[in-house]
Amino acid sequence: MTRRLICLVLCCAAIIVSKAVQAESWRAVAGAESPDHASQVIAFLPNEMWIHAGDSITWSFPVPEPHSATFLTPGLVRPAFTVGCPITNTTPDPSAFDNTSCVNSGRITTVGSTYTVTFPKPGNYRLVCLVHVNMTGTIHVLDASLPLPHDQAFYDAEGARQARALLMDDDGAPRTVREDAHGEWGEGTQHYHHMVTVATGEVVSTPGGINSVTVMRFMQPRITIHSGATVEWDSLDVSGHTVTFGTEPPNVTPQTPPSTNVFADADGARHAIIYSTSDNVHSGLIAQAGHERIGIAQAAPPTAPLIPPPLPAGPVTRFRVTFMSPGVYPYICAFHDQLGMKGEVIVLP
Q1: Residue 47 buriedness (CB in 10 A; 0-12 / 13-18 / 19+)
Q2: How many whole angstroms separate alpha carbon 170 and alpha carbon 273?
Q3: How far apart (Å, rounded) are the C-alpha atoms in residues 334 and 218?
Q4: Which of 140, 314, 322, 326 could cysteine-pair with 230, CB 3.0–4.6 Å?
């Protein structure tokens, strides 16, 4: 009887230990969008999770806007997505992360792709997207003996809630493209310019990290001017874009410099003159400079006209084009044209 009791106790203990150490697979999402692809949620959904050591998380990529799931080691300078992890750039799917070596899915562009990371040791790990600066998260990995605060159903609901909140304006209405062209600027400004807004966006902070949302559209997609006039594109977004006429540069990235026919105005804005509908013009990256943070090198100011073309690839927030001949001039954002970010300038005599 005593032996039977001992055996029963040992069996129960083995079952308990087995359940305690059994690894669990969790699910999360990278990105979301509106039905017309215009509004893009730049976020890990959810952007904070608690799991046990030995568990894994699989991120799915449901939208055409590219993202990465990347874990950088402490102290590693954030690389461009074209560089990724030292030596390897990308790492296999699945990969394990414990803060000792970088893990990177690479820039994922195929809708429906997944990437899995296993976390063998307890710790708190920072998740980033190398494609977007305002897309971060935190993974809390607890010892297997500690209880978890949430289950998969909670994370599914929380991710959906975060996406829904980002896709809605403050009044609860869906974010929309505003096609009310500004026309000419008011008194006291450079009134010879016509202005186009290059997307709009906002950043939202949570305890787990940074989320953002972008309306990836030229907000005045069609504008009509007369020959000799200048149009200015101004960025109101938290992501980067381009204004590209004609043939876009091959394998274009944020590091691709402006075309050689782009120069700098006195205020640092980039400027090009288009003489024909067959001209090719590429603005380079239109975006805010890097964040001003302690420990981060001061961002360079916009390029002054003292530097002749070709201009460096650093970001600016304004791009101007003067149109010398009548015609129809279509243009795109070379990063997001597949999402519908396109525009047209109609030049009358």
Answers
A1: buried
A2: 40
A3: 12
A4: 322
Distance CA 176, CA 179 (A): 9
Backbone angles phi, psi at 184, to 5 degrees: -90, 155
Spatial separation of the C-alpha atoms in residues 22 and 181, rounded to whole Å: 59
Exposure string over 114-123, b if 16+ CB within 10 A, otherwise e: bbbbbbeeee
**What are the mean pLDDT values of the chain's consecutive 10-residue runs (349 residues total)?**
47 44 93 96 98 98 98 93 95 97 97 98 97 95 97 98 88 53 41 81 94 95 96 93 97 93 91 98 90 68 68 84 98 97 98
Instruction: Name which of 274, 265, 280, 286 is nearest 322 in CA terms.
Output: 274
CA atoms within 13 A on the CB side of 150: 18
pLDDT for position 266: 86
User: Which domains, ranges and CATH numbers included, belong to the chain?
Assistant: 24-167 (2.60.40.420), 193-292+299-348 (2.60.40.420)
HEC string of the chain equals CHHHHHHHHHHHHHHHHHHHHCCCEEEEEEEEECCCCCEEEEEEECCEEEEECCCEEEEEECCCCCECCEECCCCCCCCCCCCCECCCECCCCCEECCCCCCEECCCECCCCEEEEEECCCCEEEEEECCCCCCCEEEEEEECCCCCCCCCHHHHHHHHHHHHHHHHECCCCCECCCCCCCCCECCCCCCCCEEEEEEEEEEEEEECCEEEEEEEEEECCCEEEEECCCEEEEEEECCCCECCEECCCCCCCCCCCCCCCCEEECCCCCEEEEECCCCCCEECCCECCCCCCCCCCCCCCCCCCCCCCCCCCCCCECEEEEEECCCEEEEEECCCCHHHCCEEEEEEEC
